[in-house]
Specification:
oxo-acid-lyase activity, alpha/beta, single chain, eight-stranded parallel beta barrel, 2 domains, 290 residues, Pyrv/PenolPyrv_kinase-like_dom, Carboxyvinyl-carboxyphosphonate phosphorylmutase, ICL/PEPM
Length: 290
């Protein structure tokens, strides 16, 4: 499936009443695993991608070059539409235009841009500050004007709730929609009542960020759909599960000097070979054997 078709598919899916649930992918194993499960959309998590690729916190340390490299790799390895974290656009308005062009050409179905000051921080961690509303509106306008494919989704995120309150976050969301955002992302609402208020306020498709252990209540997708949300992302679930599994199996190797007691909990090696495409390699070898 080419990138243009993926974008058309995502835009059409977001127009449907049933909520989209998008798992977070952060490396190529997680990308291929999620891609094999026929989700409607995947989400490239900044936290997980920076952690897996650079071994660093998601605190503005990854560059545009780092991230577009990952976007290219993830999109090239998957057939599912992928929304990719574009942080603040990696600078001013010219940087935003460059970032949108790069993500679009890399094959992304959409880009998430946020209104944090640089250096940005993960949305469920403390110390986040936001830029002036007018400055972010300009970024959204530039992003919408720059994209070549009108189906490329501009996801506009505000982190104003934590530092300036919900009313300011809602005001920003309205301004972002008028500026050309396709999807609104009000980060870190802290109660069910706040989720209800957000859903009542907008007609534009809404994204909600579900982080296990984060600030936002973890409602079931069906309940989020009833409120009016169009897409729920689960950015941390995958890398938190992997980290726990690695802790367990490495702990067993250290304590037991092997994995005899953990074999039944491991993903089968044969299935991993299939997931990574070895059958095609083996078939090629058979066809071209000397």
């Amino acid at each position: 499936m080419n990138a243009q078709h993926k974008r058309q598919q995502l835009k059409a899916r977001l127009a449907q009443p049933e909520i989209v649930t998008a798992p977070g992918i952060f490396d190529l194993i997680s990308a291929k695993m999620a891609d094999s499960m026929q989700f409607d959309c995947l989400y490239m998590t900044g936290f997980g991608t920076v952690a897996s690729y650079l071994g660093l916190p998601d605190a503005g340390l990854a560059t545009y070059t780092d991230m577009v490299n990952r976007v290219t790799a993830f999109c090239g390895a998957t057939t599912t539409p992928l929304i990719c974290d574009g942080d603040t656009g990696y600078g001013g308005l010219l940087n935003v235009a460059h970032t949108v062009r790069g993500y679009e050409r890399a094959g992304a179905a959409g880009i998430q841009l946020e209104d944090q000051e640089f250096p940005k921080k993960c949305g469920h961690t403390p110390g986040r500050k936001v830029i002036a509303l007018d400055d972010m509106v300009k970024k959204i306008k530039v992003a919408a004007e720059t994209r070549e494919d009108p189906n490329f989704q501009i996801v506009a995120r505000t982190d104003a709730r934590t530092s300036l309150g919900l009313d300011e976050a809602l005001r920003r969301g309205e301004a972002f929609a008028k500026a050309g955002a396709d999807v609104l992302f009000i980060e870190s609402p802290e109660t069910v009542e706040e989720l209800e208020t957000i859903a009542r306020t907008f007609d534009t498709p809404l994204l909600v960020n579900i982080v296990e252990g984060g600030r936002t209540p973890q409602l079931a997708p069906a309940d989020l759909q009833k409120l009016g949300f169009s897409i729920a992302i689960y950015p941390a679930s995958g890398f938190l599960a992997v980290a726990k599994a690695l802790q367990d199996v490495y702990g067993q190797i250290k304590a037991q000097r092997g994995t005899t007691h953990t074999e039944n909990t491991l993903y089968p090696f044969g299935e991993m070979c299939k997931l990574m495409g070895f059958p095609a390699v083996w078939q090629f070898d058979r066809e071209h054997a000397e």
